[in-house]
Amino acid sequence: MRTYQLIAPAKINLYLEIIGDRPDGYHELVMILQSIILSDRIEIRSNGTQAINLHCNHPLVPLDQTNIAYHAAQLMVDQFPERFANYGGVDITIDKQIPVAAGLAGGSTDGAAVLLGLNLLWELGLTIPQLQQLGEKLGSDVPFCVRGGTAIATGRGEKLDPIQDLDNLWVVLAKYNNLAVSTPWAYQTYKQQFGHTYINDIAGIQSRTSQLHSGSFVQAISDKDGKKIGELLQNDLEKVVLPEYPQVAQLKEVLKQAGGLGTMMSGSGPTVFTLCQSQTEAETIKKTARQKIEDPSLEFWVTQLSSSGISIISEQ
């Protein structure tokens, strides 16, 4: 039975601006998304049956259709029934290293890995853009996770424009393992409080997107100017999450005071990160923050920005 093992990197948001409503119930966003080396490992193995079996080492990860990885496999079965009939079902094993419910696209990147793995296993020959198009059916972050790197994301996050890869910086991530923030709650609360600022005409949305493309943040990324990037970090969802979750607000303040280039919450949280120039600086900030907040439920990760999306590590 053939087997593929893949690396599925997490992502952080370097920039997240909510600019309007969408008819589909989502929000119109302008973001800069960034892959990081912190990754799950996914094994996809032909099992000689007609079943999709999902396994994971983390007790909080669901093993049914509510898991994006399972949903991705089912989508491929539905899209390519003849290949499924020829090649049969699969066992999908997730070695979960990305924290769960953290705002780091851990579920989305697993789904992206399943799309790519089945593309190889079933010899479909799909291109990256075709896989990204399939990924849109699974979730807003999945298309980005397929390719990874650094990209401007618009629409609900599925429209991607890759920009200069940023892989010269390190990052400290911190999250309380007993804390989760509902993404729908965060966006709905933002709409209630700041909906009066929304841009809802196409020309206005396009103008705001163009401003980011041609602005100082993208230039700083092109120049690999870590100091400037740290100064320009922005996440509109902090405006509603931090007042509601004082633990996250305190964590951000402690990390900020510990040093680094800039500190921000990723996505809807509750993970907070600090960008750093070096691994040494990152480890020092981690140590300082851990001494300031002595809470066994607070976990830290030190990793690096990455220019890669889903990648194959072995084929058997």
How do the helices and strands line up, and which of them pair or pack?
Blueprint: E1 3-21, E2 27-46, E3 52-56, H1 68-79, H2 81-87, E4 90-95, H3 106-121, H4 128-135, H5 142-147, E5 150-155, E6 159-162, E7 170-176, H6 183-194, H7 202-213, H8 216-222, H9 226-232, E8 234-235, H10 238-244, H11 246-258, E9 262-265, E10 272-276, H12 279-292, E11 298-306, E12 311-315
Parallel strand pairs: 1-8, 3-4
Antiparallel strand pairs: 1-2, 1-12, 2-4, 2-5, 2-11, 5-6, 7-10, 7-11, 9-10
InterPro entries: GHMP_kinase_C_dom, GHMP_kinase_C_sf, GHMP_kinase_N_dom, IspE, Ribosomal_Su5_D2-typ_SF, Ribsml_uS5_D2-typ_fold_subgr
Function: Catalyzes the phosphorylation of the position 2 hydroxy group of 4-diphosphocytidyl-2C-methyl-D-erythritol.
Protein name: 4-diphosphocytidyl-2-C-methyl-D-erythritol kinase
Quickly describe the structure.
Its EC number is 2.7.1.148. Helices cover 38% and strands 29% of the residues. The chain is of the alpha+beta class and 316 residues long.
